[in-house]
Write a structure and sequence with these properties.
Elements: H1 4-13, H2 37-43, H3 63-72, H4 96-115
Amino acid sequence: MADVPLMHSLLRAVPNRAGVVLVGDVDQLPSVGPATGLHDLIEGGVVPTAPLTEVFRQAADSRIITNAHRIRRGQMPDTRQIDSNSDFHFVKRDEPEKIVATLVKLVRERIPERFGLDPIRDTKFFAP
């Protein structure tokens, strides 16, 4: 998710005598800022690449991983609420006002309380 300013700062900070190894996920969401640093380097064909085959960010039984693979196969994610301790939650709301109210409550209260986070400093919320 490195945009141009972040990639620029990173590479300027690396001494000339050092090497850089970048590790990324081909299915990563694009950066919020301009461009897609790692993706652009790979697509440009100027750096060698090696695909990684193991997931390290989540546990092997992660519902995030399971549903990500489902989506990649063109299937809908499994949205059943199996366990309140799950790492994947789906909240259905049909009315715009209810969607907004639910998102505000999640970002301001529920997520920070559950994980001991400051809602301003420690969380980010992105919406299409």
